[in-house]
Write a structure and sequence with these properties.
elongated; single chain; mainly alpha; 9 helices; Serine Threonine Protein Phosphatase 5, Tetratricopeptide repeat
Length: about 160
């Protein structure tokens, strides 16, 4: 019987990634466990490997067809985790693995609710300025993520 909607599936790979158990990760991947199995909130092994900045494990998971565009119930993607960590090499790895660049919106979406709606226009201006100055797309995404995290919410009247 399949797990109920929202219930966690086989989380052995997630547990191995969380505990940084390299031999267990390799064994589970060799045995073709579901690399995209998720915890009840939708968080995958790839999310956890990116959170730990474990580039080797991230590459193993991507080689095993981990979904680079996975999003949990909080709209957190591996890309947003990498940006939060400020890990440029991780972001570049995710992009090279086939990240749908439209999902870069996951970096700014959490900051564009309620009082932060005006942030989108400013973020577009910042991205354009950085691009014109020769910043790489990865650096633009990092700058937007950092700026969004540091910008205080606007007060609504």
């Amino acid at each position: 019987m399949p797990p109920a909607a929202g219930a966690a599936g086989d989380t052995r790979l997630i547990d191995a990634v969380k505990s940084a158990n390299g031999p267990a990760i390799r064994l589970l991947l060799r045995d073709h466990v579901d690399v995209n199995a998720a915890e009840a909130d939708g968080t995958t092994a790839l999310h956890w490997a990116v959170r730990a900045s474990d580039l080797g494990t991230v590459k193993q998971l991507l080689d095993a067809q981990a979904d680079v565009n996975a999003s949990n119930r909080y709209a957190v993607t591996p890309l947003s985790v990498a940006a939060t960590n400020g890990n440029e090499e991780m972001i570049a790895t995710l992009v090279a693995a086939g990240l749908v660049l439209a999902n870069a919106w996951s970096l700014v979406r959490p900051h564009v609710r309620g009082p932060r709606v005006g942030w989108t226009l400013a973020s577009v201006a910042l991205a354009a300025a950085l691009s014109l100055a020769g910043a790489t797309p990865v650096r633009v995404l990092l700058a937007l993520a950092i700026w969004g995290a540091l910008t205080p919410p606007r007060r609504t009247p």
